[in-house]
Amino acid sequence: MQFKILVIEDDRIMRENTSELLELSGYEVASAENGKKGVELVKTFKPDLIVCDIMMPELDGFGVLYILSKNPKTANIPFIFLSAKTEKIDLRKGMNLGADDYITKPFDDMELLSAVESRLRKLENFKKEYSNQLVDIESLLSDASDLKIIESLTETRKLYPYDAKEFIYREGDMPQFLYFINRGKVKTYRLNDDMKEYILEVHSAGDFLGYKSLIEDRDYDEYAVPLEKTEIYKIPKLEFLNLIYSNQEVANKMIQMLSKRVTEKEQQLVQLAYDSVKKRIILQIKKLSKDFNQKEIDFSRGDFAKLIGTSKETLVRVLTSLKEDGLITSNGHNVEIIDFHGLNKMLEYS
Questions:
Q1: Positive or negative, the Cα torsion across 85, 251, 222, 313?
Q2: What kind of fold does domain 275-348 have according to CATH?
């Protein structure tokens, strides 16, 4: 695999010499003469690593790193600063923004190549796309162990079985573990003033649970209960936090996961506010089918209604209508999609 490196440097000779050195070392290289053009080039070139000067016109190196760190798609790109500035305050500022290394000019060729190779080796271990659809925690923990960060995590790991309706954690509990679903389905929910459930989300194999409260060091504000027999890995809080705070790649992956969750919840709120009940039900059927990678959904009518934000009676009426239209079959807890195209057409008119 040929790694791609972006060099952002306003000095033409320095930019050309650095690019040539990296190309001779077997890397694919692109370059930009200022920070603004560098940020734009990231979108199309999609580098595996960025080497960037600090003092530049248009946008300095600190600004480049700040912008990229706010975008989940670019936040995990290793970033090496090149600068003639040697003051500790500048070094601290760069590292606080998330820089992976800081090399002062003039530098030896091997110094730069060594820094680049070191960062790319670590990146390669985390190049797999870990998202909220992870299906194998073994890969994540194995890669983290390869980085010598959490070897004890892999040694103490074991599966914990949970029965349906058995609490994994409750609102008000203090987080002690990061939970990872190996098999099964889990609902997270809150109770309103009338003690009725409001389902926040349904999680399946490959999802993490409870990480937001754990990272923010606050009590859970939700309940987590399996919908069926479920197997879960419990990763001790301190070991997980050590991984997050000591490894930029893992921290960035968690940022991506959180960002994706926030976007999904925003979309859900918009749907609740503006979409018809029928449209919300169809969208949720499609989402659950996609999440569980199957046409048939096994879900109690009560839980399904809470997830949609409607009454059980309304849900049953809509499901009956969709069944009569030949779009689904429905029997007990089960809902099976038999006409995906028809459901999509129905969304256009709902």
A1: positive
A2: Arc Repressor Mutant, subunit A (1.10.10)
